[in-house]
User: Which sequence fits this backbone?
């Protein structure tokens, strides 16, 4: 699948979702970039500081809030690890063609 399809699908899905803010979009884009850097792994296993760097965010609180919301809204599935030595798992929702 074309790499841009994942981002295009996300933008199509959020088109009418008033709950999604620019911060959600930035974090999703950063998660997708992290996924690209990891050979399109699904799930990715990442630490918040890795995604914060890519997204150019400085607030871990904002990051966790937005990732939880993206998961609640069905755009990703987030499984926090609660282990400082193991990154959280983030699953991307795959479209079926």
Assistant:
């Amino acid at each position: 699948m074309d790499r841009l399809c994942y981002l295009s699908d996300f933008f199509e899905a959020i088109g009418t979702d008033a709950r999604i803010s620019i911060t959600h979009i930035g974090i999703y884009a950063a998660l997708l970039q992290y996924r690209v850097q990891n050979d399109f792994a699904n799930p990715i296993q990442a630490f918040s500081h890795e995604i914060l760097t890519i997204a150019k965010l400085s607030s871990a609180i904002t990051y966790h809030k937005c990732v939880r919301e993206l998961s609640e809204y069905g755009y990703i599935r987030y499984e926090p690890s609660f282990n400082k030595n193991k990154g959280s798992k983030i699953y991307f929702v795959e479209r079926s063609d």
Summary: The beta strands are 44-46, 76-79, 88-92. Residues 22-37 form the longest helix (16 residues). The chain is about 50% helix and 10% strand.
